Amino acid sequence: MKKIVTSSLTTLGLFAAVGIGSAKDNSRVNFILIHLDDMGYGDLSLTGASSYSTPNIDKLGQNGIFFTHYYSAQAVSSASRAGLLTGCYPNRIGFAGALNPRSDHGIGDQEETIAQVLKKVGYATSVFGKWHVGSKYEYLPLQKGFDEFYGIPYSHDMWPNHPTAKNYYPPLPLYDGNEVVETMPDINQFTQLFTKKSVEFIEKNKKNPFFLYLAHPLPHVPLAVSEKFRGKSEQGLYGDVMMDIDNSVMQIMQTLKKLKLEEKTIVIFTSDNGPWLNYGNHAGSSGGLREGKGTTFEGGQRVPCLIYWKGVTPNGAVCNKMIAGMDFLPTFASLAKAALPKNKIDGVDISELIKGNFDTTPRKTLYYYYKKNSLEAVSNGSWKLVFPHSGRSYYEYEAGKDGIPGRVQGNKQFEKELFDLRRDPGEQYNVLNQHPEMVEILEKIAQEAREDLGDDLTGYTGKNRRLE
């Protein structure tokens, strides 16, 4: 039996490890990446949600691995997704913030996406749901390695019904491939519609290796839910939405079981960033972590990640090793025996962790970048050093209600702080003065980041950024 790294969070203490199997044919393993929008660390019944239940999502952890220290590539949608798809820190490839319908930016031709990497070794590839890494023709999914795309090019709040910017955005388009097939679609059908497309894709490719990227636009606002789950949660509309998504996961897993594909399919469930807290009762929960979306505190980037591969992942394991969204590309490439991109990437291969070999530590450091290119913090997995910066804070203003956002403090000044994440995941106790030796270690990590990627806060441009 492999050593299982246990969690300090009491809500995770229910899981115990059992035996580990082995894949029959790694070169033919399928990949399903279920990627939510704005789901926080505390938004699963597995992690403390109590007014609704997510039993099917929880089963991925009960039958697989719960990675408690998973970090999105950045704390905002477009940058996070660019990092996930290319295996790079978003600022390495010139990504920052959330692109809007007027943006002329996207993933450049010098970068390779997960889909492009896998297509070279015969994989069918698809994305259903939200894209948000470039809405011009040359940046849409079919030009970035995907065989199929059915979904929206950016966030579904970027439409004329926006609560605070009415008629600023154009009608929301729904794409099939490169063609707009509908404008202002019924967003209440999104979760079930994109699930249906995903199931059809799996059935069509049951004899071929495939990569399915199911990028649910929800629970990002405006919240929307199918009729079957409306009013079903004690928490209101947000809980309804999470139950709708849980049903989507059930449908995906039932399809894999029916087609006898569970043993050759890795299923990953996670989120692009933490909760948009100023939306109040229409926002998720950070689960006690500090701040939320749009911040480099833990609540902005640390979100649940569940990975299940029948016969390979240990049942009910909890892994506290640090991993990040950039790590999926090199991991998929390794398992599929595909070549990595020619340009430098930042992801690391976590396939040994997926197999339950928790004695390995593939990711040693994490850089928390935000804004255009500001290095706001660094971590070695146990300790985190926060640098002086200005940024968003949710804690000093009243939250919004029923889809209308509350105010946030947009320019709060944060001081230099050191946190022991093992004892203080909520980042409440600054121990900067007590541990000068750890500050020195983390400062060296930060300096490596500045020289490589740059840092607007200290005036470094960086030697290895690839800007379009």
Q: Could you please describe the fold and organization of this structure?
A:
This protein is an alpha/beta fold and 468 residues long. The chain has two domains: 350 residues, Alkaline Phosphatase, subunit A, CATH 3.40.720; 87 residues, 2-Layer Sandwich (Arylsulfatase, C-terminal domain). The chain has nine helices and 18 strands. The strands form four sheets. A ten-stranded mixed beta sheet has the order 7-6-5-4-8-1-9-10-2-11. The chain has a four-stranded antiparallel beta sheet with strand order 13-14-15-18, covered by helices on one side. The protein has a two-stranded parallel ribbon with strand order 3-12. A hairpin with a 3-residue loop joins strand 13 and strand 14. The longest helix is centred in the middle third of the chain and has 22 residues. It is globular. The N and C termini lie far apart (48 Å). The N terminus is likely disordered.
List the helices and strands and how they pair.
Layout: E1 30-36, H1 55-62, E2 65-67, E3 70-71, H2 77-86, H3 114-119, E4 124-130, E5 148-152, E6 173-176, E7 179-183, H4 190-204, E8 210-215, H5 237-258, E9 265-271, H6 298-301, E10 305-308, E11 317-319, E12 323-324, H7 328-336, H8 351-354, E13 366-370, E14 374-379, E15 383-386, E16 389-393, E17 409-414, E18 417-420, H9 436-453
Parallel strand pairs: 1-8, 1-9, 2-11, 3-12, 4-5, 4-8
Antiparallel strand pairs: 2-10, 5-6, 6-7, 9-10, 13-14, 14-15, 15-18, 16-17
Helix pairs in contact: 4-5
